[in-house]
UniProtKB/TrEMBL annotation:
UniProt cross-references to PROSITE patterns, sorted A to Z: NTF2_DOMAIN
Alphabetical list of Gene3D superfamilies matching this protein: 3.10.450.50
Protein name per the record: Nuclear transport factor 2
Domain NTF2: 10-121
Keywords, comma-separated and alphabetical: Cytoplasm, Nucleus, Protein transport, Transport
Amino acid sequence: MGDKPLWEQIGAGFVQLYYQQFDTDRVKLADLYYDDCFMTFEGTTVRGKNDVMAKLNSLPFRSIQHIITAQDHHPTPDNCVMSMVMGQLKADQDQVMGFQQVFLLKNIGNKWLCTNEMFRLSLHNFA
């Protein structure tokens, strides 16, 4: 990992920690969000760490497992890191579903926090 650019190391490290915590104990995700963050989840936007955590904790599954199939990270002109993640998830006994997620990370108080996030399931209806 040391031979990758710093922004890729930051983004990949955040992604690994985020999904590890999401899959084992969602409550711990609060430490990864900026207080005044934004999240759009399946078209619904919430603002603030408390509302983001309320949304994540209200999701109706008991167990979940994420598999990351691809991730890309870019530096931004204002010293942030933008990360795009593609993968699959399995919640409870549901079928495996694809998803995309985007994070904007900012170094605040010597810690990389999520300031903006967007999530969508990859659902296709060809009917």
